[in-house]
Amino acid sequence: MELISEVGTPTTTDVPSHAAIRRSTHRRYLMCPPTHFDVTYSINPWMNPAKPTDQPIAAAQWQRIHDQLVDLGHTVDVIPPVPGLPDMVFAANGATVWGDRVLVARFRHAERDAESASYLEWFASRGLHVQQASTANEGEGDYLSAGSWLLAGSGFRTDRRAHLESEQYFDRPVIGLTLVDDRYYHLDTALAVLDDETVMYYPGAFTSGSQAILRELFPSAIIATAEDAAVFALNAVSDGLHVLMPAGSTDLVAKLREAGFLPIGMDVSELLRAGGGVKCCTLELHGPAGGR
Ligand code: ARG
Fold it and tell me: What is the distance between the terminal CA atoms of the chain, rounded to a whole angstrom?
């Protein structure tokens, strides 16, 4: 079977012949280098300020994610890092972007509050329609676009009231999903959108009501195990074919291949000390105009 790739990736023989044909589409991302990366406070269970971090290792891991996305043909913009903001590397949290509309984050914790100013400035200087969320809203950490839906997490960071604001601001239907396990404190730690109809997720991170919504909306979802979730494998970025994901899961990788995707494992061990992985580092500039 031939895989169709619009970003010029080689076809592969790894994919089962009965698998669906997956197609990659060109994406635009915004990333922030981990120049000032550190764990100096703890706002999620992965963060332990007593354990030393290694900035050069974090930088190398980040660079590989960046370069892999570029090699796949995607456009990656970089926002300048700010001293004293060690979590700014997690650009996914900076905003939610759809076309020329940008809703910049309002962080739950004071430690990250000052990041918003950089995103307001970066997007405004590109002539986009920019507004800051009025209640706690951690951008694409908690908002994932899937086809016509905007999936929206709450429970730990983003306020439920922010979902209504996002629905009105983007004029897109928002599906609220409630997280219950504090290790999976953002939606993107428990669910990844693979293409317009397909997601992968760890059910145990959600209330039973939210699990029922996910079953209904995504009957062909790939279901991850507790072990997959624990290595942060769901913190993944997909272009519709390639799935860049934290390395370490075997089951989930096999299920992705079986479904016709091409998983690419990335070492994020150092970034994980702050509770971050591949998707956390990557803000997708979604939508018709690709964020422009
Ligand atoms: N230390 C950061 C925090 O707790 C990690 C953010 C990870 N980002 C994400 N999109 N899940 O806020």
Answer: 35
